Amino acid sequence: MQGTAKALPGAAHGPKVRARRESGLSIPTLWVTAAWRPRKERGSQPGTPGSEGGSGALSGKSFNSSRKGVPGGTGLGSRTQGGWGPGPGRVLLQVQAPGRGRGPRAGPAWEPGLRPLHPPALGSHARPLGYAQAPPRQIRLRSVPPPPARVYLPCRRRRSRRCWTRRPAPSHRPAARDWLSAVQSEGPERGRAFPAGAPEAGAPGCACAVRAAGLVPAELRSWAVVGQAWSVGSGSAAATGWGAACRMPEIRVTPLGAGQDVGRSCILVSIGGKNVMLDCGMHMGFNDDRRFPDFSYITRNGRLTDFLDCVIISHFHLDHCGALPYFSEMVGYDGPIYMTHPTQAICPILLEDYRKIAVDKKGEANFFTSQMIKDCMKKVVAVHLHQTVQVDDELEIKAYYAGHVLGAAMFQIKVGSESVVYTGDYNMTPDRHLGAAWIDKCRPNLLITESTYATTIRDSKRCRERDFLKKVHETVERGGKVLIPVFALGRAQELCILLETFWERVNLKAPIYFSTGLTEKANHYYKLFITWTNQKIRKTFVQRNMFEFKHIKAFDRAFADNPGPMVVFATPGMLHAGQSLQIFRKWAGNEKNMVIMPGYCVQGTVGHKILSGQRKLEMEGRQVLEVKMQVEYMSFSAHADAKGIMQLVGQAEPESVLLVHGEAKKMEFLKQKIEQEFRVNCYMPANGETVTLPTSPSIPVGISLGLLKREMAQGLLPSAKKPRLLHGTLIMKDSSFQLVSSEQALKELGLAEHQLRFTCRVHLHDSRKEQETAARVYSHLKSVLKDHCVQHLPDGSVTVESILIQAAAHSEDPGTKVLLVSWTYQDEELGSYLTSLLKKGLPQAPS
Amino acid sequence: MEPAEDWLVESLRLYQDFHAFDLSEATRVLEWIGDKGVFVAGYESRKKNEILHLTLPFRLSVKENQGLFPERDFKVRHGGFSDRPVFDLKHVPDTRLLVTSGLPGCYLQVWQVAEDSDVIQAVSTIAVHEKEGHLWPRVAIFSSVAPGILHGVRLSSLKVVDLESQKTMYTSGVSDSDELSSLQVLDAHTFAFCCTSGRLGLVDTRQKWAPSENLSPCPGSGGGRWCAEVGGRGRGPGPHIASLGSDGHLCLLDCRDLSHPESSVQCAVSTPSPAPELLRVTWAPGLDNCLAISGFDGTVQVYDVMSWDGMGGQAEPLFTHRGHVFLDGNGIDTAPLVTTHTWHPQKPRTLLSAASDASLHVWDWVDLRASC
């Protein structure tokens, strides 16, 4: 009958793990309520205690035996309150408020019984458990309750702007896995992370996946106790210091700098106690401090190396790597810097170019030197695509193809079961020389994606090319010369292939040249990194030399003065020096000619000046160059637009998405779109704003064999499709979780079990003596409850299992007897049934 | 890819400008807001559809189309989600309000474009009482101080509803159950209707229902479904109606005398329209005597009506846009069907066209007659 398996009160809404801590107690314990079966519809039985899910708060609560008396309920008058029955004494149900300070708090004077059993001190995370809605009733608690559960609670980290945590020295590292991130207690610079001997804390929001610790046959593993815990710690817990440095299961992301097209990308990520800096870009638009990200955010005086586990560079564009030498050599960082092989090869060239412009042309002082670039590059660790790189024992990273430019990569950063993917700049549509970005279904906790073009629908690549061809064609047709300044590597190849094909089709005769340096450099890099390009280029490269074109020939300086139309590709791409600038000076005065800038230009370069519309340029020696030639800008940069972002989110299937590089106001719709389509949260932090994501790491919990055996004996075995829930008490011992029977838990904790008894008065019309009434009750119950052990004790009371029934005279009405019924909460269902049975009256006794 | 490359080279000659975009979903709607913005909306029945307010690429907005205007992308200015497919969308002039129609056809949805964010929100609905299975109400807007929504599924259900008070201002009051295919407001009191049967009429809302109309479709056509548009600058003085049948028949009527078509030609379409709901005929706002048709295949054809003579002849297009056929970015084997097109309000030879593969093209065609 009833009572074989009990849904513990409070299980109505699914199992709960409630955690409480008290300092000063040594054994951390979590009390778990896990429903073994769904709560039965018991409310149909009149007077069933705990219907409405009311008595739910009993488990996991702390009780204090401190006060007598239970105030009368306003409800059913027939119920009894009284001080009788077995047990060492009356108890007052009292809930221990979670301690905030250094010692156990005196419990608030909770009125027992009818009050909602959640203490307000649980904070806003706590939910009322239902007493407030329950019908008024009186519940009597008997015996000594166990002392308050002792739990080390995770504390909620104080949110401060400077929240970067010093990396702990290896000797201080905790042994356990780090699903909790490090905490700082007094300030970022003096973070006291992981004092030795501190217990590992329990975690709120953790899903306890039960692992049967090798004790259980495989088929039992689908038995799961899934607990949800509350954060009951207060924000100040860490600061007020109860010894333990707790680590929160959360991922924190702070963008340090990101703007529009040529912003400075730099994002700090804290995951599983590891701190990673993603990209280290510079802002092209500034010449002052704003050029570089504000690294003092990480630490004011300390060494960056102490605060960062690694730095990852996504690709060689200066807005993603331009601040690297400043960061590593001038601010000071000696940890590893990860990037792909092509990025490693190209990045120093670009940095040197940039340095030359800044120092040699603009005469800036206090800038990084060539030696610093070299020293910085020595700290670089190059990675291959899809290679899992172990940064340390716990932190691993993996690069995925991002398209965009040669060597561009997205990175997955993983610590334990938590991971973040950072896309950098990427391109979801393949082009003539690069493939499309791709990532596997890695389901990271967070996907950090660029969103520079999130609100744009991009014109197709082909139409861009068409425009390029049209411009070149028109100029050549009217006898003009076309200059295309390019960087050695990247789009140049693409444009060469395009022009070659076009010349062939349209049968054009005008010569196309490329400057010589380009060939060697480009071939060199392409040989190195051919795997990074797309299929078409690879094929071309295998079949013939990249620059063995029919129509494209090597350029000689003298050709620039040749009459008639021609097209010249020349380096460098920003017209700041070298051959491209020389040719530009020669051709600038003729309005028939055209210069096409295929990429962005750094401020201060000739390229930047003419693109911003300047027509008179001051050259060396105070010579003024009048630009009459046509100036065109063709952006071939390949970024993901709104559709691309959606595609990537669909590929990676993250739990949350974070957009950087965009204006929040303009992206509300995109946010909604991502949230609707993928049912994930979407964040858009501003620079310097931190997004904190709680994570739900899996925590293994061992189940005792005894508990499993007992639960197995009670019914069907669970299967993958039909999981079952089981009851148990979760204890934390030797830094591991164990689910045991409550008896064992009590034993381990050295506690006495306390009993809860419910009592009830039933009025019977019976003018006979108490003993006779009791005898009648006995015979009635004996006849009805044939399967139960019904006994008539010598003192006149009747017992049914643990249920005790005594008959007493009514103080006022001699024709009425009062039956005092008392039962333990384990026999709650039987007790309720009995009371309802007795309330119907006794069968007429044969007189 | 070869034909595509060839076409692209050819396109240098054919187009002054050509831009191709890939929307996240196909649209049947291209509704202008000013001359820089356009609304598009998805029409799939099984998912949430997006309504987007896009601004045209900057280089299309500037008068002088010269260099240094690298901005060649559409920008998503506002967006919203619709639970049902959007078959038609009308912007209420001088407001931030939109009205959409679709299936189920029992109501029209009114939307508001937010001022301080990029969101388009549903604000109210206008009930359409009759519920007719697969039919959905056609919509047109009377723009005035108090905008009125003209809507109807059939002639009998035509009414004008005040947008703000939702009061009915006008009803046709007839029992004619001819199904409507298009509605067009001409001025503050008159509108034109076209029934799927080819029946056309002009209605003055100040008077009782007494439209000037043609009761039978174009002579010489094989029937099918019809749509029509009134153009201000047709052949000769006064407004003209161009009426297009799903078999490719095109009739031109003078608004002053709807009973006698001026000309009737067969357009150069190979097959009847596979989806007559997508038939479109539009007059060029900036060119005399030019109109464009689509809805038969993956092309948009531009015709010069001046070259048509009398009845029953064959008409050759002045220009055919084949971009959707050659530039299908999604790698679908079958050629997409053009779902709608529209003329740029300012740039005379610039059109926007959308196709079932979610492509959206903006093209400025070259009149090759001029260069010959």
Descriptive keywords:
heterodimer; A: 847 residues; seven-stranded mixed β-sheet; 18 helices; elongated; disordered N terminus; B: 372 residues; mainly beta; 29 strands; 42% strand
Strand and helix map with partners:
The complex is a heterodimer of chains A (847) and B (372).
Chain A: E1 16-18, E2 31-33, H1 237-240, E3 250-257, E4 266-271, E5 274-278, H2 304-307, E6 310-312, H3 318-321, H4 324-332, E7 337-340, H5 341-361, H6 370-378, E8 380-383, E9 388-390, E10 395-401, E11 409-415, E12 418-422, E13 446-450, E14 456-457, H7 461-477, E15 481-485, H8 491-506, E16 512-514, H9 516-529, H10 535-543, E17 552-554, E18 566-570, H11 578-587, E19 594-597, H12 606-611, E20 616-618, E21 624-626, E22 630-633, H13 642-652, E23 656-660, H14 668-678, E24 681-683, E25 691-694, E26 701-703, H15 705-713, E27 729-733, E28 736-740, H16 742-749, E29 757-765, H17 770-784, E30 790-792, E31 798-800, E32 803-809, E33 816-824, H18 828-839
Parallel strand pairs in A: 5-6, 6-7, 7-8, 12-13, 13-23, 15-18, 15-19, 16-17, 16-18, 19-22, 23-24, 26-28
Antiparallel strand pairs in A: 1-2, 3-4, 3-25, 4-5, 9-10, 10-11, 11-12, 20-21, 27-28, 29-33, 30-31, 31-32, 32-33
Helix pairs in contact in A: 4-6, 5-6
Chain B: H1 2-14, E1 15-22, E2 31-33, E3 37-41, E4 49-55, H2 58-61, E5 74-82, E6 88-91, E7 97-101, E8 107-113, E9 120-127, E10 138-142, E11 148-152, E12 159-162, E13 168-171, E14 180-185, E15 190-195, E16 200-204, E17 212-214, E18 226-231, E19 240-245, E20 249-254, E21 263-266, E22 280-283, E23 290-294, E24 300-304, E25 311-314, E26 319-321, H3 323-326, E27 338-343, E28 350-355, E29 359-365, H4 368-371
Protein name (chain B): WD repeat domain 73
Organism (chain B): Equus caballus (Horse)
InterPro entries (chain B): WD40/YVTN_repeat-like_dom_sf, WD40_repeat_dom_sf, WD40_rpt, Wdr73
